[in-house]
């Protein structure tokens, strides 16, 4: 008899523009966010992340785990994510996960940047 392999955990990253840590009701914010609160109650909150003052560099940081100046997306919106970078999607995909990205891309002048979109099974 063989023991079943442990199930891989589901991983969901949520990045939304112009929402501060303290804006969520789970952190005492004034606007109710019950669905996000449920995700927090059932999951893990990662708190060691630095955002940038605009969206493109922040997205690049989340995708690569590297400072936006190192990956070519800072200091302003519209920088091109360096094609040599490895994204978190590629890491998850290499470990058997199905990956997806939904919403605004904002990591280059081509909104579909095929080289990076290929790392995701789904992109919308």
Question: In terms of quaternary structure, what is this?
Answer: single chain
List the secondary-structure elements in sequence, H or E: HHHHEHE
Class derived from helix and strand content: mainly alpha
Q: Which spans have pLDDT < 50 for at least 5 consecutive residues? A: none
Mean pLDDT: 82
Strand content: under 5%
How many strand units?
2
Side by side, the strands of the main sheet go 1-2
Radius of gyration: 16 Å
Summed up, the domain count is 2
- Dominant shape: flat
Query: What is the helix fraction of residues, given as a range?
Result: 25-40%
The largest sheet is: 2 strands, parallel
Q: Which secondary structure elements does this structure contain, and how are they paired or packed?
A:
Layout: H1 34-42, H2 55-64, H3 68-71, H4 88-94, E1 100-101, H5 114-117, E2 122-123
Parallel strand pairs: 1-2
């Amino acid at each position: 008899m063989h023991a079943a392999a442990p199930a891989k955990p589901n991983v969901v990253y949520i990045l939304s523009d112009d929402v501060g840590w303290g804006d969520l009701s789970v952190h005492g914010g004034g606007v109710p966010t019950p669905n996000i609160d449920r995700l927090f109650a059932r999951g893990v909150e990662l708190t060691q992340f630095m955002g940038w003052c605009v969206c493109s560099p922040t997205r690049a940081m989340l995708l690569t785990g590297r400072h936006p100046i190192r990956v070519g997306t800072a200091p302003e919106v519209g920088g091109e994510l360096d094609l040599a970078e490895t994204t978190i999607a590629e890491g998850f995909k290499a470990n058997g996960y199905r990956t997806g990205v939904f919403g605004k891309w904002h990591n280059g002048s081509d909104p579909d940047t095929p080289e990076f979109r290929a790392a995701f099974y789904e992109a919308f």
